């Protein structure tokens, strides 16, 4: 498969502030790649470089097979973090203006606008002034404008910035519909829920470099640490539990497994059950991706968080006390996953 984005040894400074210090990145055709990084890591700078709005100090960029980034812009849909529009346009007028500016034939343009207004849920407000629309609607208009020319590549910068929980959910569900259409996507964000929900692969941008890349499927739904709330644990039992591995710490009525692995959890539970200790609750803490992200940003090793083979423990696990996989701390991700489960149940029902 060809790479739609190829970035090699990219550096960029603003005056004395060095932001990108040798970024390497490849995004394959059809892939949805999430670039995670803290505020100020240089995510927007990278997008502006890909669009040819900025020039790098050194390094190489190829987008859709070409280094002529200005020429490629028509093939790229860009959804900026902050969108500003002329208040006295309506969504339909604004999209029409853009399409004409781009030289789209009128009949094709009209059809395309109807389709995009429908996709983004803006048909009912197509003829209302933009100043009367909610922030969520404006973000969705941003998606419609980015899709107008049916681009091969979408660059999306912090799509849910400034939206409330409902707005975030609506937008991510829409972006998930968009991803099903097969566009290659680079999504820059610091929100882990967006990456877990939408992306195939994630790169963590920190200290001017992509420090780590992870396949999202390997870490999706996995918790980073687990607290097992128990009845009283006497000292010998606590020592026995801590002998299982250095990931295990006990206090008088709880066992913490960090980083969590289902295998360790099974061993802990087995010891607790054999010792007749009451297990009050299993409380998953940070998601696995959150732990990987935080450690990478702090420059700490993550090797033991990347182990994905869970096969050995399935046999030992007591299903009754196995936590549900959606027990993630992020309420948005939880809502999205519940919605997805509901959708597939509905689909199954129709078949
Ligand atoms: N035009 C500019 N002139 C000087 N410094 C800039 C300029 N644009 C960005 N910066 C600085 O470069 C750094 C990276 O900014 P950038 O906006 O690319 O980061 P980001 O990862 O997108 O951040 P955020 O998540 O906050 O949007 C920041 O320290 C920012 O202040």
From TrEMBL:
MF term (GO), any: ATP hydrolysis activity
Family to which this protein belongs: Belongs to the ABC transporter superfamily.
Segments forming a coiled coil: none
Gene3D superfamilies: P-loop containing nucleotide triphosphate hydrolases (3.40.50.300)
Pfam families: ABC_tran (PF00005)
Nucleotide-binding listed as a keyword: yes
SMART domains: AAA
Residue ranges constituting the ABC transporter domain according to the UniProt record: 5-232
Keyword Nucleotide-binding: yes
Keywords per UniProt: ATP-binding, Nucleotide-binding, Transport
Protein name per the record: ABC transporter related
InterPro entries: AAA+_ATPase (IPR003593), ABC_transporter-like_ATP-bd (IPR003439), ABC_transporter-like_CS (IPR017871), P-loop_NTPase (IPR027417)
């Amino acid at each position: 498969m060809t790479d739609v984005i190829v970035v090699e040894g990219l550096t960029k400074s603003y005056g004395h502030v060095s932001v990108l210090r040798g970024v390497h990145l490849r995004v394959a055709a059809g892939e949805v790649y999430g670039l995670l990084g803290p505020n100020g890591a240089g995510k927007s700078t990278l997008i502006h470089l890909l669009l040819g709005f900025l020039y790098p100090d050194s390094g190489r960029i190829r987008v859709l097979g070409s280094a002529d980034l200005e020429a490629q812009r028509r093939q790229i849909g860009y959804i900026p973090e902050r969108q500003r529009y002329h208040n006295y346009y309506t969504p339909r007028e604004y999209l029409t203006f853009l399409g004409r500016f781009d030289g789209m034939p009128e009949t094709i343009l009209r059809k395309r606008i109807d389709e995009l207004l429908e996709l983004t849920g803006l048909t009912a407000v197509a003829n209302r002034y933009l100043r009367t629309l909610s922030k969520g609607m404006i973000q969705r208009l941003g998606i419609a404008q980015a899709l107008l020319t049916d681009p091969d590549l979408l660059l999306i910068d912090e799509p849910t910035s400034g939206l409330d929980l409902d707005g975030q959910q609506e937008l991510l569900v829409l972006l998930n519909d968009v991803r099903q259409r097969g566009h290659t996507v680079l999504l820059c964000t610091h929100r882990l829920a967006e990456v877990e929900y939408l992306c195939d692969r994630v790169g963590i941008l920190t200290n001017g470099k992509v420090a780590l890349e992870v396949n999202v499927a390997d870490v999706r739904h996995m918790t980073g640490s687990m607290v097992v709330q128990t009845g009283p644990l006497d000292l010998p039992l606590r020592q026995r539990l801590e002998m299982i591995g250095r990931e295990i710490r006990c206090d008088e009525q709880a066992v913490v497994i960090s980083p969590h692995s289902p295998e360790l959890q099974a061993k802990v539970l087995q010891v607790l059950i054999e010792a007749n200790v009451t297990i009050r609750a299993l409380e998953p803490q940070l998601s696995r991706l959150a732990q990987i992200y935080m450690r990478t940003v702090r420059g700490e090793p993550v090797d033991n968080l990347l182990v994905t083979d869970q096969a050995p423990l399935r046999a030992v696990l007591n299903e009754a006390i196995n936590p549900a996989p959606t027990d993630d701390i992020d309420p948005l991700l939880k809502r999205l996953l519940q919605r997805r489960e509901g959708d597939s149940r509905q689909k199954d029902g129709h078949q």
